[in-house]
Specification:
Length: 90
């Protein structure tokens, strides 16, 4: 997977918001807000040319005190949601 070009994460009033940077991505009908963990994972994934759920799990385990099974399920769900929203490409 890879992060789709044209989205930038910004901190707006303490909230992590994904902002479309290109005209093809502009959809003002929704705002994409990330919780701190999802923002951490987005930042990590956006630095990689490609990433996997395993990459996300490794980063999460290094940063947070969480059980691997819980981290894996959370990362799988986040990646699935990002895919549904068109934020990442396979």
């Amino acid at each position: 997977m890879k992060v789709k070009k044209g989205f930038e994460m910004q901190n707006v009033c303490g909230e992590h918001i994904l902002v479309p940077a290109g005209v093809e991505n502009v959809d003002f009908s929704r705002i994409i807000s990330l919780n701190p963990t999802a923002a951490f994972l987005w930042e990590h994934a956006s630095k990689l040319e490609t990433f996997t759920v395993d990459n996300m799990v490794e980063a999460l385990l290094e940063e947070y005190d969480v059980e691997e099974g819980i981290a894996r399920e959370d990362c799988r769900l986040i990646a699935e949601r990002w895919s549904e929203m068109g934020l990442i490409e396979e």
